[in-house]
Design a protein that fits this description.
The chain contains 4 helices and 13 strands. With about 240 residues, the chain is mainly beta.
Length: about 240
């Protein structure tokens, strides 16, 4: 699949990065919950060099949980230890030079090697104790950050509809179709390009501990998810880190 992803680029809303891609991952059993927040409350937590993206008057924070599978660098075999692991990330939505993208508040991973590698690329990864199991049609997922016991997630989720490609202009499309990851380092904007086929999410039912949601939010922001999606699998390729 990773060799043919670039045959399908017509659905992108941002230009392809220059040069060859460098890493491949397959995301499985992916859950994402979306929380509307007041833009003014979120602005202090986003670098000034990035423009906070808004939909219908709200900024949005999303929590994603999933299994990473078959991670490998281009031209090399899968990592013997680190090619699969659980991940939980918390993101918001930004623009840079009018390109829509993602800004991460945190990314928790169950193995230390991906954490070290991602931190070298400027992403805010943290080591966490994580578990996932399928029981009676639900996926049970838990995460407790290793050096910050207050940051955690505990819940279960399942698909409750057929997968469907979001329509252009809808909130689901706005939330999911993002092809750049942005951060800043010493005043420079860091960007990582990604590519995948268009999202085809199902609606999800999620049962979760409220305290865990609040523990993952930036600062003292609190919120309640109003939308949730489930995706069975998504193949993703990444480009090397670039600075501007």
């Amino acid at each position: 699949m990773k060799q043919t992803l670039l045959d399908y680029t017509e659905g992108r809303n941002a230009p392809l990065p220059d040069g060859p891609w460098s890493m491949y991952q397959r995301w499985e059993d992916l859950m994402c919950m979306h929380i509307p927040v007041e833009p003014q409350a979120l602005l202090p937590h986003v670098p000034e060099a990035l423009e906070l993206d808004i939909y219908d008057g709200y900024a949005w924070i999303s929590i994603f949980s999933f299994n990473v599978r078959n991670m490998q660098l281009r031209g090399l075999p899968k990592f013997p230890y680190a090619h699969k692991f659980l991940e939980l990330n918390v993101r918001t939505y930004v623009r840079h030079q009018n390109i829509p993208g993602i800004y991460f508040f945190s990314l928790d991973a169950a193995k230390i090697i991906p954490v070290i590698g991602a931190r070298s690329g400027s992403l805010p990864y943290f080591k966490a104790g994580m578990k996932a199991a399928k029981k009676n049609g639900w996926i049970h997922f838990s995460s407790h950050r290793q050096h910050d016991a207050s940051a955690y997630f505990k819940g279960r989720y399942k698909s409750v509809s057929e997968p469907e490609k979001p329509l252009l202009g809808t909130l689901d499309y706005w939330l999911l179709e993002r092809y750049y990851l942005f951060n800043t380092v010493k005043g420079a904007v860091v960007h990582i390009g990604i590519h995948h086929l268009p999202w085809q999410p199902a609606q999800a039912s999620v049962v979760y501990e409220n305290g865990g949601i609040d523990s993952l939010m930036p600062g003292d922001i609190e919120g309640e998810p109003v939308r949730a999606h489930y995706v069975e699998a998504l193949d993703v390729i990444f480009w090397p880190v670039k600075y501007s």
